[in-house]
Amino acid sequence: MLTTKVGLQIPAGIGYDEWERAGHQLVGVLDSSCWWLGDWLKYGKDHYTDRYQRGIRAAGLSYQTLRNYAWVSRRFDLSRRRPALSFQHHAELASLPAGEQELWLDRAEQRQWTTKQLRGALRATRQGGRPARTPAEPSRRLEVPGSRVQWWHRAAQQQGVDFDQWVMATLDSAAASALEDQAERADQAERMEAVSA
Is residue 55 domain-shared with residue 113, that is, in the same domain? Predict the structure, then answer.
């Protein structure tokens, strides 16, 4: 395969294994380039403060994108970066204190989470931090077949969150989505009535 600035030339008749291997390599280069650019920017800011902005313009990427790369690179020095996890995994955790970052990096690495799974586990943990229900709030009992409960337990475990937190977060998300859909349908009905009037 030949890479150029504007494309990838793939030889005719390439085997599936070789094609798949190339895809993994390309994704690796893409992910690594985020770290590379972040480290490049850190160095530039530390050593060329008077010409830093000129260097950023020369890179040709948006300032915000480059700034994000540099920020994540600053939050994780080389010794703390996990090669088994993507730049995006690290970006999800960059705002946390170092100790929490390590805890979540360990979980993501051990459980082989995608970035989306990591984000879901973080969200569920944050939502689980809400105050406990007061005794005045009504409680309900819901009977569910055992196979469903086992399935839900597996999903919560996959995301690395407490089962009760996962159930609450999932139901809250479904309720919010249903209510948004209902509000959209009501808005559409009102618009249709206004048009036909």
Answer: no
Rounded to 5 degrees, φ, ψ at 168 are -60, -45
Strand partners, 7: 4
- Give long-range contacts, CB 8 A cutoff, 24+ apart: 44-53: 45/70
Residues 69 and 98 in one domain: no
DSSP one-letter code for 79: G
State the pTM of this model.
0.59
Say yes or no: 95 and 169 in one domain.
yes
Q: Structural domain of residue 84, as residue ranges?
A: 78-129+150-197
Decide if 124 contacts 165 (C-beta within 8 A): yes
What's the chain's Rg over C-alpha atoms?
24
3-class DSSP state of 131: coil
Contact call for residues 41 and 73 (beta carbons, < 8 A):
yes
Using pLDDT thresholds of 50, 70 and 90, give the confidence band for residue 86: very high
Kindly report, residue by residue over 67-80, the tens digit of the pLDDT.
899 999 999 999 99
Q: How many CB atoms lie within 10 A of CB 109?
A: 14
Q: What is residue 31's predicted lDDT score, i.e. its pLDDT?
A: 79
CA distance 29 to 51: 27
Q: Is the same domain home to 60 and 98?
A: no
